[in-house]
Write a structure and sequence with these properties.
Layout: H1 11-21, H2 28-33, H3 54-60, H4 62-78
Helix pairs in contact: 3-4
The structure holds zinc ion.
């Protein structure tokens, strides 16, 4: 886990990786757990009908695997 805090890795990438590994990304599932979103909106915003958590977004969602991952990561690198 300490490898993500390497000086050669941009801070925003390290922070994103830390959040990903700690299950702290603002997915609808996590936002529901901390009562920011209503419990009935914890499903994937891609419209697939499954619970939106990190594993779903990056590994199993057809919608985000098609476009989301690359757009999101590109945004991290550009900004
Ligand atoms: Zn989905």
């Amino acid at each position: 886990m300490t490898e993500i805090w390497n000086k050669k890795v941009p801070m925003k990438i390290s922070l994103f990786a830390w959040c990903l590994f700690r299950d702290k990304l603002p997915t609808t599932d996590n936002l529901t757990k901390i009562h920011i979103l209503h419990p009935n909106v914890h499903l994937c915003v891609g419209g697939c009908g499954l619970i939106e958590d990190e594993k779903h977004l990056f590994l199993s969602c057809d919608f985000f695997s098609a476009i989301g991952g690359m757009v999101f990561l590109t945004g991290l690198v550009i900004n």
